Amino acid sequence: xxxxxxxxxxxxxxxxxxxxxxxxxxxxxxxxxxxxxxxxxxxxxxxxxxxxxxxxxxxxxxxxxxxxxxxxxxxxxxxxxxxxxxxxxxxxxxxxxxxxxxxxxxxxxxxxxxxxxxxxxxxxxxxxxxxxxxxxxxxxxxxxxxxxxxxxxxxxxxxxxxxxxxxxxxxxxxxxxxxxxxxxxxxxxxxxxxxxxxxxxxxxxxxxxxxxxxxxxxxxxxxxxxxxxxxxxxxxxxxxxxxxxxxxxxxx
Length: 252
Prior knowledge:
Blueprint: E1 2-8, H1 19-32, E2 36-38, E3 42-45, E4 59-67, H2 72-86, E5 94-99, H3 106-115, H4 123-133, E6 136-139, H5 146-159, E7 164-165, E8 177-179, H6 180-186, E9 195-198, E10 210-212, E11 220-222, E12 225-232, E13 241-243, H7 246-249
Parallel strand pairs: 9-12, 10-13
Antiparallel strand pairs: 1-4, 1-5, 2-4, 3-4, 3-7, 5-6, 8-10, 11-12, 12-13
Helix pairs in contact: 3-4, 3-5
């Protein structure tokens, strides 16, 4: 069965393991325990507002996984224990687990995710929606406000059009040049890239086109695919394209 696992608000500004690290550890544990196979983690930016408590960026983390249906309850129990054990002091973790094939009204969950990027939402609203849609939603310490971001992260991942994948592509050192073909091939060993696309025009690059790999080589989730966005390179004799800067990637 296909599921989404989303977590939020597990850390503080000084903690060793951030929410992204914990999500990746949890995804890897699913594989190690033989419960199924997880996809890479995506980071989803939520509203930054004085009425929303957060440590630094107010983002949630989500990943999809294919698991044995008989292991679902065990996975939820383990994830709950994991968050309670690994969360930072003073954090307010939330856990959301969505059974995709059994999800009714997926548009409602997606709408909640996008709302969390624009307005202040409440725990009561999150719990009411989760109950209506038959989604597991639970809090694991502190105020439990992380359930809002956890539910939102699941909705945004489900949309297929929000978030950037955690980690960097390890293809070549910074400022090296690679063909699209090389990017697609070598990315299979780290974060899979499905296609390379122009930010401005939406043009999908051909395999022979050359790309300069900038300071951050990180794909984003668009159209349900892992997409490496590029922009025209200025006065570059080796490559017509360059990957996005950190500032540009913040939009995702």
